[in-house]
User: Fold these one by one.
Assistant:
Number 1:
Amino acid sequence: MGLFSTLFTTAHAKPVSSVTFTLDSATHTYEDGNVGLNATTLAITPSDRRVAVIGLNGSGKTTLLKLLDGALPASTGSVRLTADGTDYDPSVKRDLKRIENFVGRVRREEIPNSYYKAPSIREAIDQPLKKHKVPESERQAIIGNLFAHFDLASVAREPASALDGEKRHLLAIASALSFSPAVIVADEPTKGLDEIASAHVAKALFSYDRQVIFATHDTDLITRSEYAIDRTLVVDGHDVVFDGTPHAAVTFYTDLIRARYEASKA
């Protein structure tokens, strides 16, 4: 698990090393009555190191990710996370608190509001670690290694408001990793970036030693061999309609979009 796990093991509960996500006929309907996801049954195991989720806007990608990471409860059916052999139910408050420790959430370039109040991004990440009584030497090692990996060292003393889009995306990922989760669940972690910045963020994310489950519209990204995406889900009409390899998924998705376009002209 690397340096961060070693650091946290010394003074805190042993970090989770592997997580299995299980959805059993799980659905979510929002309070306004809009369906986010129809009944979905699937499992994502630790062997699925890089899982992409693709689909049109409004198809249900974000709802699926939020069910996986516990941000939304299942309206019907169930969601279960099994961490190192122990089952957790995100609908149970005590379990959800534990889940938030071993599943890191990334929402595009969104960072905690508190980060904008801190004098610098280094202090922004340091403050919650300090609040959890992580010793200073460990905090500095965690921040130093995160900032080195995500190319944030040169702006460590800058306030969050001074960062460009690429650096905000990188900081959002680094923030999610600060407590050494076993898995990152990321909703469009390269959204809005140009091709060069997107590649930089993707390389930093996928070269980090964590399981990653992420949503994207970038079909080129998921088929590039250097990112080693091994499984892709296609979501359409609030259903998971395809589950397979990236290249097969992109072919399926392209045909789906073409069929929609042809139908719209008829």
Number 2:
Amino acid sequence: MDTPRGPLQPTGEGTAHVARLEPSAALRELVVHYWLPTWQIPAGANHEQRILSYPGCNLAIEDGIGTLYGPVTRLSLKRLSGSGRAFGVLLRPGTGALLCNIPVPELVDGSIPALDCGLDCAGAIHEALHAEGTIEHQQRSAIAIFEDWLVERLPTGMDAEGLLLNRICADIESTPGIGRVAQLCEHWQIGERALQRLVHTRMGITPKWLLQRRRLQEAAALMGRGTGPNLARLAHALGYADQAHFTRDFAGVTGMSPGEYVRQVQAGSVGS
């Protein structure tokens, strides 16, 4: 259910694929991975996918135009038509604030031209994706162009505050059972106000929201694998007091009930 991390699954006719490639070792504290979608949709057709995004900034280049997207707090809709290729960068939680020319809280659920962040190589990346050679060679060439720019743009890499944020977010992503902000504060030996300030300043959201989003990602993944698990049991496993609270949060973020989500996964209209 997350575009940079899950497959593009358009409904109806047509094909779409997303390649995910790792960044260079020196840039792993700045970039999670690159996502490079390709699609071919018959003329007159229009396909869409609902997306619950990773809670960070994404940089995307399509048709030679770069856009920096802020954290998305709600379900978004991606429509595909015709044929094309794009270049995407899923940034680490601490990276967006280093690139953005406005405070990240102002970028939540929004976007700005990547040119405003100094990205002047969008055209070169687009050309690399359409140059002669194999798709793999085209993609690697595009990544090399971007990474040269990123090293020049951020020569000192990630700062200490950003490194801490990256590790806290990784902890949330990889450790089942973390459901309360107090658990994070205790584990990382950081005060709740300091944690709130760090996450808000660098990501524009709250620690509580990060924890909730992770639980909903887990729920979406579990429901996407089956035919509809016991929702009361799932809510309990995810740390909810009852099924009603889980259903409310899920619908509030995705715009659909858990049951409706399962039906759409089965129909192939939601990426899981």
Number 3:
Amino acid sequence: MKRKRTAFVLAALLIVAAAGIYFYYGFLFKGARDIASEKADFNITATKLLEAYNEDPKKADVLYLNKTIEITGAVTKETDSVITLENTVFCLFTQKIKEKHLDHKVSVKGKCIGYDELFQEVKLDQCTLNQPHN
């Protein structure tokens, strides 16, 4: 009888553990977003985005923060993995940027992570570059 009880308790623990793992991986831990495959929630120019943050930062955060947005503007600075549009939108890419786009109009899709008051820039991460507009 003790063996049946021990087997029952062990089986119950295994079921609870399996349910916990299923719940954690199925509902709580969904992994990172794939911004590149998401449709943009907003299409906006770099200057309009900065204007929105300068006018009302809280309202702009409600609209844009953690959303996938597509920004259009001229590239004013660039490094291996960063493009700055119109000196106002800082775009961090997940991979190195192979071609140079300085002084060209481009469209960048990324996740808005907020406004940096120190540098007076809107920050985007997980960016992908769409076709240049030239």
